[in-house]
Amino acid sequence: MIVARTAFAANWLLMRRLVAGALGKSAAGREPPAIGQPRFLSLIARLPLEVAEGLAEAASGFGQTQPEHYLYPPADIHLTVLGLADLPGLEGQVGVAVARHRPFEVEVWGLNVSSDTVFAELHPRGPGLRALRGDLRSAESGEHGSISRWLRRRLAHANVMRFGAPVDPRLLAEVGRLRAMRFGRFEVDEVELVRTDKVLSRAGTRTLGQFRLG
After folding, report:
1. Residue 14, number of CB atoms within 10 A of its CB
2. Residue 84 sits in a domain of what CATH number?
3. What is the rounded distance in angstroms from the CA atom of residue 136 to the CA atom of residue 82?
4. Which helix (H) or strand (E) holds 167?
């Protein structure tokens, strides 16, 4: 958890400057995410509604500052276990791997930013998430570069907003005020294999299987 805390803190110091500066200006032509186009295969864990509603409420003010960005509805807020490649027999492979792992607990900390999103920092307690990801690594998607995949296997987050335009500095300031918030904790005892769009929208998501951790 110490490594994740350090990484998230460093990310905030870097990304708030980039998003507000040159990176934000380069997004002048950015459009809201395409909804209803299921292009991605992912193994996810949905956050419990009470936790997701707390995050959505915290993020609701961002939409008042910049309504052109996309706010995730509570039911769509999730933890991505791993992005997966479209391989033959994938559903069976996932089911076997998941059954080998015990449920694990996740703490939901404050908000942070990436180049594309506002997200909540997720801090798994114990090695459960990382072990599950390691067990599925042979099926991992190659969509992201090697460095990005390395980080994604070690950190966890839940997006609450996806940018659809250059980011107003006022929005970043609002995120900064929620850095120290705590939004509770939850147990992951079930995961879901989905084919989905970029935001896990109801219109763009098809569930291929649900699996209980052993």
Report:
1. 11
2. 3.90.1140.10
3. 8
4. none
